[in-house]
Amino acid sequence: MRIIGNIFHRTKFFDVCEKREKLADIIVDIKTLLGYIEHGKELLPMPVVDRESQKKLIGELLKNADKHIKASEWKKALAEVDKALAIEPNNMYAMAYKDRINASIAEEKKKAEEEKVKKLSDEKKPAETPKEEKKVEPQKEEKKTELPKEEKKEEKKSELVKQEAKAVANAKEDSTAKIESLRQEFAAMQAKLQREVAQLTLQVKEAQAMKEAVEKKLSGQIAALQQELTLAKQQSGASANKEIETLKKEIETLKDKHQRELERAREVAKAEGIAQVAALQKELEASQQAASDSSLKQQGETILRTMFQKAWMDGSISNEERAMLMVLKNAIEMTDEKFSEIEKVTKNEAYEGALRAVWSDGVVTPDESDFLQSLREKLGIPAEEHFKLESLIRKELKK
C-alpha cells in the first residue's frame, strides 16, 4: 500500500508540474496578446501587398517553420505558421504544417507520459524485493520497533501531501486571479481602443462635412462673382465711360490736395530752417563779441561740438538736429572730414560723460546699467572701450 501511495503521490506531483507549465505558457500568451493590443496591432489591418510578394513572404515563413520542426522547436515553428496564416488564412501549405506540428507535439507528450509510467514502474520493482525477503517471520520485538517508525513516516508523508496540495491550491488561485486580471486589463484596453477609433471616425466625418460646406460656399461665391462680371461687361458703354470720368476727377482732386499739402510742408520747413539759422547766427555773433581773440571758424567749431554733445545725450541725432548741424557746418565752411571727426569724437565724449555721471556716487544701479548698455549700443561703443573708460573712472574715484 505504501508503494501504491508513493506512485499516486508522484503521479499527482507530475500532473501538478505539467499544469504549472501549461499555466505559464498561457500567461506568456496573454502577455504577448496584451503587448500587441497595447501597440494597436490587433485593430490595424494587415499591410496590403501584391500577390507575388504575399506568396514569397509565406514561403519564407514556412521555410523558417521547417527549420524549427527539424530542430524540434515546436513553439517557434507554430509561431511562424501562425504568421503565414495571418497573411492568408486558407493557405493549404500553412494549414498542413500546423497539423503536422500539432501531431508532433501530441506524440511528444504521449511519449513523455509513457516514459513517466515506465519510470514509476521501474521504481516500484526494487521496492517489492524487500517484501519477498521478509517472508521469514521476524521476531515480535522487531515488529514492535518497526511499527512506530512506519507510522511516523506515514504521518510525514501525509503532512507533505497536505502541504503540497495546499501549495498547488494557492498556485492555482494565484494563477486564476492573474488570468482574470489580465482578461480585465485586455477588455479595458480593447474598449479604450474602440472608443478612440470611434472618436477618430467621428472627427473624420466632421472634417469631411466641413470641407464639403466650405467647397459649396466657395462655389456659390465664385458663381456670384462670375455673374457680376458678366453683368458689368454687358453694361452700356456710356455708363462705363461715366464711371471712368468720375474716377479720373477723384484722382485729380487727390493729386491737387497732395500737392498743396506738400507745398505747405515745404514752406513750414523753410520757415523753421530760417528761424534756426537766424538763432545760430545770433549765437555766433554773441560768441564773436565775447571772444574777440578767436576766429569765427573756431567759435563755430566750439558751438558745433557743444551741439553734437547735446544731440548725443539720447544716443541718436534726429533729423532736425542733423539739419541744424549741417547749417552751422556750411556757415563756417567746415570740410566733411573735419565734420565726421568731430561727430566721432563727440560721440565718445558723450558716452564718457554719461559714464562719469553714473559713477559719480560710486555705485551703479540696475537701471543705470541698463541705460549705459542701451546708450552704448546706440552709439556703437565697443565693449573694450567701455571697460577701459570704466576702469579709468574707478581709479580716479579711488584717488
Note down, in words, how this protein is organized.
The chain is mainly α. The chain has two domains: 2-128 and 149-203, no CATH class; 259-398, no CATH class. It has helices at 2-38, 51-70, 74-87, 92-133, 140-234, 237-290, 296-311, 319-331, 336-358, 366-379, 383-398. The longest helix has 95 residues, at 140-234. The radius of gyration is 53 Å and the shape is elongated. Mean pLDDT is 72; it is low at 1-10, 35-48 and 131-136.
Q: Secondary structure elements and their pairing?
A:
Elements: H1 2-38, H2 51-70, H3 74-87, H4 92-133, H5 140-234, H6 237-290, H7 296-311, H8 319-331, H9 336-358, H10 366-379, H11 383-398
Give the DSSP E fraction (strand runs of 2 or more residues): under 5%
Number of helices: 11
Sum up the overall morphology in one term: elongated
N to C succession of SSEs: HHHHHHHHHHH
Low-confidence stretches: 1-10, 35-48, 131-136
* Helix/strand/pairing category: mainly alpha
State the end-to-end CA separation. 117 Å
The proportion of residues forming helix, as a percent range, comes to over 70%
The total strand number stands at 0
Mean pLDDT: 72
Largest β sheet strand count, sense and barrel closure: none
Indicate the radius of gyration in whole angstroms: 53 Å
Integer tally of domains:
2
